[in-house]
Design brief:
The protein is of the alpha/beta class and 372 residues long. The chain is built from 15 helices and 17 strands. It has a 9-stranded parallel beta sheet. The protein has a 3-stranded antiparallel beta sheet with strand order 1-2-3. A 3-stranded antiparallel beta sheet has the order 8-9-10. The protein starts with a strand and ends with a helix. The protein is globular.
Amino acid sequence: MSAIKYELIKKCRQTGARLGIIHTPHGSFETPVFMPVGTQASVKTMTPDELKEIEAGIILCNTYHLYMRPGHELVREAGGLHSFMNWDRPILTDSGGFQVFSLSSLRDISEEGVVFKSHIDGSRHLFTPEKAVEIQNALGSDIIMAFDECIPYPCDYEYAKKSMERTTRWAKRCKQAHHDTERQALFGIVQGGVYSDLRQQSAREIVELDFPGYAIGGLSVGEPAKLMYEMLECTVPLLPEDKPRYLMGVGSPDYLIEATIRGIDMFDCVFPTRIGRNGTVLTGRGRMIVRDNRYSRDFTPMDPECDCYACRNFTKAYIRHLLKAREVLGIRLTTWHNLRFLINLMKKIRQAIREDRLGDFRNEFFNAFGYE
């Protein structure tokens, strides 16, 4: 039996977008969903109770970083990630592949795996498909990811094809290495760069392996939005209707809405926490750089339509003061707001699907936010 079950609740008659529920060993959550990123077993500046207050149904933790520090065996000794970080809701871990390829300038890719240098101390490590599964088994997350090769954009066709074929072979090895299928669900990952025939070939091959869920990787890495949407349109229809679909590393409001319309159920990104630490917040009227001098005497909330703790209790002027004074509370409040904004956006998207009006909602949101 699989550790998770996807339940399709409704399809939007206007767009075809899906409303569903994913059931896991640590509870259920509605989809489409945005997952806050807790890279090192912590969503930056947020406590678990605060994440529950903003209605985070699931979070993502990073295999590479937890392997490097404090080590997956220590997390296993602590009882797994849920116990270690005191989070009793679902957790998804990535395979570490993206970090192996993005953080290490010195790496050697072979059929066995990837030899790379630690970004912390320069020590050499080998990640194989089996190793990625072993680490995630120790972490104890509800959803784990197959080890894949992440190629950059742009990338020539021949290398994209070679990489995609290797990702399929690695996916087979991951499935063979993963045994605790009732406790953890292993997702396969579709690759293929920005080439539609490679994406479709990858999707067919990965689906043949019969994973309990499927991710689409290697997008939102610098390619134009139109090209990303084209890749989704040629890939998503090949993925099973009765299993979840996860678009990795996507978190801007326009991408969340557009990808949901194209059939995606799950998203994650460091985008809201990263821009929050830089003093930028998301509002119903677009992005706002609250650090700007224009807000020094603005005694209104960052977003009057937002129900988060920061907007209920503090003004732009106060939060700007905290940021300029480098008080930690400042970035806590901007992070809190941005995460709540995206989680609330997904709630509005789900409601629009229920009401068969996601296309109308998209147009209304884009007009208000300032998207063309």
